[in-house]
Amino acid sequence: MRSLRRFGFEAGGIVFSVVAFWIPFYFIIVNSGKDAKEAALLNLAWPSSTHFWANIKTVIVERNFMLLRAFYNSTVLTVASIAFLIVLCALAGYVLQRRSDRATPLFNFLILAGLIVPPAIVPTIWLLDGLGLFKTLIGLILVEVALGFPFAVLLYKAFMAALPREIDEAAVIDGCGGFGLFFRIILPLLQPVTATVVVLSSVSIFNDFTNPLYFLPGSKNVTVQLTLYNFQSMYTTQYNLLFTNILMITIPPLVLFLIFNKRIVAGMTAGSIKG
């Protein structure tokens, strides 16, 4: 009976995965290969004649190669944000895990509050504008780092608990200073959780739609998610080109996730068990 129940749960999970993820992905693929008339029907039928390459070419050259510019902006945004997240969050997680004084509970509370309190759009725009960073890529990078900071710090802090303090003491005896101890000894040991932070945060930042819309307006600053506006308007939508655009901006993070899937699971489980 127990094995039958377990089989039922596994079968239910597979069915849910197919319905929730693979059918919508199949829907995107088939409609990206149709012409405008067939794609407007919005069904799961395979195209009578394929137009994949024609649609891809049209999407790329649309509005003076906006998609290529968007890929460049999103790549710079993602890489820079991830670099800042790794350094800042690893440092913060190390200090919070190793340090124990009266201020530590306050800092832990602030980190948890960062996960709970929703971001305020208007005050953030006002702050960025006052700093001269509104409508700039640097300003958006700072926003992405601030939003991803609490979750990444918690991952690093949990994983850091598995590293014995004797490592720190031995490095100090050998003459390592504070930053030398962290960057030469501790940071290389954090590769599993760093891989988790890199993949999860990069997929989230690359696919972000709301923050670039609010904090980085302008056609020159467009990111990949905002290119979806190229093929829909108040009165008409070119569904074949829209789904082709969706497919093209979905493939890079999907491939990244599939390649590093095992490292993501290993990093998160190691942190949760050892923390």
TrEMBL record:
Localization terms from the record: Cell membrane
SUPFAM superfamilies: MetI-like
Residue ranges crossing the lipid bilayer per the database entry: 7-29, 71-94, 106-128, 134-156, 185-206, 239-260
InterPro entries given in the database record: MetI-like, MetI-like_sf
Lineage: superkingdom: Bacteria
Domain ABC transmembrane type-1: 71-260
Keywords attached to this entry: Cell membrane, Membrane, Transmembrane, Transmembrane helix, Transport
Pfam families with a match to the protein in the record: BPD_transp_1 (PF00528)
Signal peptide: none
Membrane topology summary: Multi-pass membrane protein
Similarity comment text for this entry: Belongs to the binding-protein-dependent transport system permease family.
Name the UniProt record assigns to this protein: Carbohydrate ABC transporter permease
Phylogenetic lineage: Bacteria, Bacillati, Bacillota, Bacilli, Bacillales
